Every structure is written in C-alpha cells, then in structure tokens.
Amino acid sequence: MSKNDDANGFAEQGLQLVCVSHLPDVFARYVGSNSHVNRYPIVLYDNNSENVGIAERYNHFIEQQMGEGWIIFMHHDFCFDEDPLLRIHRLPMNSIYGVIGVRLEKGQRYAYLGLSRKYGLMLQAGHYYNRRLLGRIKCLPGFVEEQILGTPVKAPALVDTVDCCCLMVHSSLIRRYQLRFDPRFAWHFYSEDFSLNAQRSHGIETRVVQMDCGHYGYGRLDEDFYQSRRYLVKKYRGMLFSSTCYVPPKAEGIERFAGGKGLLLLF
Predict the structure, then answer these.
(1) Of 3.60.15.10, 3.30.1330.30, 3.40.30.10, 3.90.550.10, which CATH number belongs to 7-102+130-251?
(2) What are the residues whose beta carbons fall under 8 Å from the beta carbon of 110, sequence distance 6 or more?
(3) Using the 8-state DSSP alphabet, how is residue 144 labeled?
(4) How far apart are CA 161 and CA 51, in angstroms?
(5) Strands 213-215 and 137-139: what pairing?
(6) What is the mean pLDDT of each run of 10 residues along the chain (267 residues)?
C-alpha cells in the first residue's frame, strides 16, 4: 500500500521511502507524522493484514513500485531529525549507504600455544581484528546509558555492513546490477546480506553517512534471529565481516583464551 504514490512528485523530489509496519501508532509517530520525510512519497507495507517478511516486501517494492532516484528502506521505529535528501542527493550513486555500520580493522598479531581437549598441544597465530561502530545515532533510554550509539563520521565511511534500521541506495545501482534482498532473511540480517552480496558479486562498497537520526526499537533475539545469523555466516564463509548484530571470532579479543592453559604472545 502506498501512502503517497504520486509518481510526478517522486520524480521532482528524487527520494522514495519504503517501510514495513504492523504497528500503525509506531509508524505514525516516527515516520508518518515526521515533517522531515512525509513531504516525500512513502510506500508503506501494512503487515497487520498479512505478515510478510521484510525482505520479500522490499523486493516487491523494487519490482513493482520503484521509481528513479534515491531509495530509503527504513524501520517504522526509525526517525530522521533532518531532511535526508539534503545529505544524500550529492553522494556517489555507486555505493550502498546507511546511518550506522561496522568495519573490522586489523589489530595486533598474536600467537597462542596451549592445550586443546580435542587436539592436544596446538599453536594458533594470526591477527586480532577491532570492530569500529561508525555513524552516531540516538536510541531508547535503557539501551545504552548515554542514549547514543556509534562514532560520528565527517565523510562517508567504508564499512562491512550497515544496520537494517536504515538502508539507502540509488535506484540506478539496483537496476544496473539487479540487486535484491534474499527472502530467506525474512526478519533479520537482510541488510547485511544485501551489502555482502553486492560486495562479493559486483564489488559494490557500503558506507555510513552521518545524519541526525534515531532508532527507537529493539530487535527480537528469537530462534529466527540465531538461525538467520548462522545462515549468513555459512553463506559468506571465507569473507571476514562484522555487523551490528554479529561479532566474528577473530574480533572477540584475547578473552577467548581466558581460562586456557597456555602462553599468549602479542606483537
């Protein structure tokens, strides 16, 4: 269902927003009544009547309703506190963008000689990787004490993936490479998969843009969440990446050796 399907208006403004919601009050509070975005066409998928996965909804939009210009896929509890088009209309159209994301950076080398129940004496060596949460957004009280997440960026910053609360991409990039969301990620990790697939298949980079915005909801850590995460790791086996909801073993730090019997060297 489209809140505003004025094609001429979209052509003039160059922005279209897409949102899936099963809570009308939440959508109205953060999106529908938001003067920073409701001047633009908003395609709302009402999941009250039929609870369809978000990835499938987004694909339907791409195939049936997408115009020409910038597209913002956003959660119903995500709020822009400034006009997003003013931030993105001059950005290069060959990247995927978000407002908060994660980049892995190579840290210290390590060597660990210790005992394993399965293999006996063993040597592990490699690099630690540090996770950088880039892009500052506001969040609910109680989620973090400061009610702010992430490190602000001055220019679009390269990341592995961006959080699914807000994903921004130009329609020309979607059409050129026939980008789609994997419907097997119905509720979780669909934005991570979108970025990783674009990177692996087409060399498309994902970046974070600093905006005045907030995400005022919590994700459900249910069985579907963990199943989707396992599938994501399996699908991109061989790629080193992280996300706001996934920390790879190489980024877990020296605490993974805590309690072990062995020698750890950092250099």
Answers:
(1) 3.90.550.10
(2) 124, 125, 126, 127, 128, 254, 264, 265, 266, 267
(3) B
(4) 26
(5) parallel
(6) 43 83 97 96 94 97 97 98 96 98 88 74 79 95 80 98 98 98 97 98 98 90 94 96 92 64 74
